Amino acid sequence: MNNFGGHFGGGRPHHHGTSTMRCKYCRTTLTVIPGERAIQCSNCSSVTRVRRADRIPLPVMGPMTAPFQRARGNKRAVLIGITYAAGGMRRGSGGQLRGPINDVKCMRNLLCHRFGFPSECVIMLTDDQRDPFRLPTKDNIRMAMHWLVQGCSYGDSLVFHFSGLGAQVADDDGDEVDGYDEALCPMDAFQRGPILDDEINETIVRPLVPGARLHAVVDACYSATVLDLPFLCRVARNGYWQWEDHRPPSGAWKGTSGGQAVLFSGYSDGKNNFAVMPDAVASLGAMTHSFIKAVECEPRGVTYGRLLTSMRTIMKSGGGGMGYDMQGPIGAPMQHHKVANFSGVQEPNLSSSEMFDIYRKPFVL
C-alpha cells in the first residue's frame, strides 16, 4: 500500500442506486459503496475519498450488537487480527501477514491471566474463524466496537486491539492537523472500504462516560492517530516529553463524554519494508510484542512513560527479526516463533483524550 488520499473526478450513476468512480492513482473503475466515505482499490490498494456529493446514503439504523450481547462484565475487550489470506490485500508482497492471529491470542492471554478479564468478555475477530460473526469483516468490526462501549459506566475497563493493515486518505472536513485521515482495513476492505478514524472516534471514544477507561493498542501502518484523540505525546530519546495539541482546526470535538481514552500505536512514515515470514513460520507483530513484553517485564503500577520507554527499548533492540521470548501462560501458545515488523512501525506512540504527567500516572487496566 503505497499511495493514499485525494478526491476523484465525477461519479457516473448506474441502475439500482449505484455509481462508479476512478481510482485516483491507477484509474481503475471502482463501485461506490452505499454509506461509505472511502474506497480501497483492488488493483493498487490505494484509498480514494468519495466526495460528499457522490456518497450514497443508507437508511438510518441503530447499532447491531446482537451476536455479542451475552457477556457484559465491567472488563471487556475486542481483539482483531487479520492476515488477509483470502482477500489479496498484499499484492506484490509475496504473501499474507503471518502475525495478527498470534497477536490476538497473546493479547487475550495477557488480559485474562494478568488483568483478570473474563474470557467470555473478550471478543476475538480473526479471519481463521468458522463462525461468520467472528470474522473481521467491516460489519462485524463495527458491531463489536458498539458492543464494547454500549452502556459503559463508571469503573469499566475497555480494551481495543487491532493487528493488521492501516491506510491513509486525504481529509475532507478540516478535522485533521496533518491533512490526512487514518483508517483500519477490515478483511473485506476491497468490497466495503476501510474504517476511517472519524468513525472509530465517534464509536468507541466519544461515548466514554466519567470513570470509564479505554486502552487501545493498534499494530498497523498509518496508525499513529487512528483514534483521532486530541493529544499526542512526543517523547525524546533523553526522556523529555511534551504533549502536542491535535484538536481539529475545524473545532470538532474528538474527546470523550468524561471518560479517558489512551492509544498505544506505532509511528511509521510508510517507507519501511513490511516483513513477511515464510509460510512455515508463524510470527508475532513487533508492536504488539513490545507492548505485551513491556507489561510483563515492568512491575504493576508502572507509569505510562516507563511503559512507553520499555516498549521502545524492546523494539529497538530486536527489530523485525527478534526471537519470541515471552514466558508463562501469556506466551505459551507462541513459543518457537519469530517476531516480525509486518506493519513497518518504527517506534511506539502514545495519544490520549486528555493530557497528564506520563511519569506520574500509573498504567491500570
Task: Give the helix/strand layout.
Layout: E1 12-13, E2 19-22, E3 29-31, E4 38-40, E5 47-49, E6 75-81, H1 100-114, E7 122-126, H2 138-149, E8 157-163, E9 166-170, E10 180-184, H3 189-192, E11 195-196, H4 197-205, E12 213-219, E13 231-235, E14 241-245, E15 260-267, E16 283-285, H5 286-297, H6 304-318, H7 328-331, E17 338-340, E18 347-352
Parallel strand pairs: 6-7, 6-8, 8-12, 12-15, 16-17
Antiparallel strand pairs: 1-2, 2-3, 4-5, 9-10, 10-11, 13-14, 13-18, 15-18
Describe the 3D structure.
- It holds the Pfam family Peptidase_C14.
- Residues 75-352 form the Peptidase C14 caspase domain.
- The protein has 365 residues and is of the alpha/beta class.
- It is built from 7 helices and 18 strands.
- Strands 7-6-8-12-15-18-13-14 form an 8-stranded mixed β-sheet, sandwiched between helices.
- Strand 1 and strand 2 (19-22) form a beta hairpin.
- Helix 1 runs parallel beside helix 5 (286-297).
- It starts with 11 loop residues before the first strand and ends in a 13-residue tail after the last strand.
- Mean pLDDT is 80; it is low at 1-16, 90-94, 272-282 and 319-324.
Brief account:
The chain is α/β, with parallel strands linked by helices and 365 residues long. The chain has seven helices and 18 strands.
* Mean of pLDDT: 80
Distance N terminus to C terminus?
34 Å
Give the number of helices: 7
- What is the molecular shape? globular
